[in-house]
Model the fold of this input.
Amino acid sequence: MVTLNINGQQVSVPEKTTIMEAAEKIGIHIPHLCFLKDINEIGACRVCLVEVEGMDKLVPACDTECREGMEVVTNSPRLRKIRRINVELILSDHKSECTSCVKSGNCSLQALANDLGIIRSPFVENTAEKSRWDTKLPLIRDASKCIKCMRCIQICEKVQSLGVWDLRGTGHRTTVGTRDNLDFQEADCALCGQCITHCPVGALRERDDRDVLNDAIGDPEKVVIAQVAPAVRTAWGEQLGLPEEENTIGKLVCALKKIGIDYVFDTNYSADLTIMEEGSEFLYRLAHKDEHKWPMFTSCCPGWVRFAKTQYPDMIENLSTAKSPQQMFGAVAKTYIAHKLGIDPDKVFSVSIMPCVSKKYERTVPQVNYNDEGFDVDLVLTTRELDRFVRSDKIRPEDLIDMPFDDIFGEGSGAAVIFGTTGGVMEAALRSAYFLATGNNPEPDAFKDVRGNKGWREKTFDLDGTELRVAVASGLGNARNLIEAVRAGEAEYDFVEIMACPGGCVGGGGQPFKDGLELAEDRSRQLYELDRKNEIRFSHENSAVQLTYQEYLGEPMSEKAHHLLHTDLKGWDIEMVREDT
Done:
């Protein structure tokens, strides 16, 4: 331990603790823009500078370690003046379009400039138009807003192991772009969106497709059907000011109805459908192990599938052929659901509310669309876009009431709910695989050992006398480490779940964010609580799923189910479709 004084307050902290961490311990917040714990501790923004007695130069608090007897000042007149100048310099090279910026009201630079009272910068702004990406792509970068904090570079390289972003140019021309000046389509981006959630300004964002939904709602020839992903229910109310206990799925259904959605269903229904197909496929592969590549990987995360396609194309055959819950729902919405509702399938406009940016890409992949002449899912909105839609309609959270999903495709099991967190797909699949193999239900929490926040976990279970070795990984860096270990013979598994985003879909690239905070763990806890309280804990007990097989599909892995709910992943096209917004 070392003891030091910060602004006259004594504090003792372990060795190698930074000044910023020590200050937070005693309630002193040091402003910063670029810092991310364990990921980006490079002092690039120079906003967190502090004075240390005996040193003429100011030092960055984010990467300067505490020493015994150190005397630190964080708020002297000199510091206030220099901090303001540094922020003014950043603003001089930042296109301040706050009124039309997607981060307005949730921007760290905007908040800091306001706190410092910067009304007008004394520096001449660099008004030269910097490169702006095609706004028709799912992920959009605006270099004119980039403050070169390096967060996107570090997240993509250290956490996701892809290294899509890099510095380019020199001097005042320095900016962030794709590595080696590659076209974005060639940069092997997984579209996980983690760079968006960690960007402190509006330099990175998803394509905003709200106008497309608005046009569909206004078209009398269209019937708008929305599906809501499991992870969305834990986060949609965060930026609307709803506390956790009021952040209910019923109020979300109410909000969607107020917007003008005709039918609101639960993606949990198709998540249960996915489990029936994927679990049955796994048992089939297990019984014919010599005929298949091993282990079998889950395939419901398009960011992970893009990663596998670009980084490990020889392992595509290891992936389950089952479509994701989003695409399964889209296919069923324009066939069986339309029939049950008495709607012309050609009039169905299918919308999915997702915690994910890569879902915007996935819906356009030809191989996952049952409809040869169009898309099974017509539009994807992220949780953030949904929140902006609710705010733009001035829907007050306090006016929302709990409303049920529309019958009958609003039913979902607790197993489907936990799809939204890392390990949830594996646990749900094992619950039903056990039933399909034995005819009996296991204890609902029999496979809970796959839960947790560690990026790569493994466990062995007994499935009716067969030893199953399973693994779970979230974050593409962990996925890479797992695959390399399997290739090197250092790990051997039967079934592997991989999610592109750390923590799973609850930490997805389309979720609301609060700068510097990782919220996946808290959201996961909410999903497990919803699972625990659900009257149905197993996917195979979902009555809507049972009816779908009885009336339409026959049985899992039937010819009809395979045609509608499975896909050829080897043929997946990773080209991003450019769409008008």
Observations:
- The chain is about 35% helix and 15% strand.
- The chain has a mean pLDDT of 94.
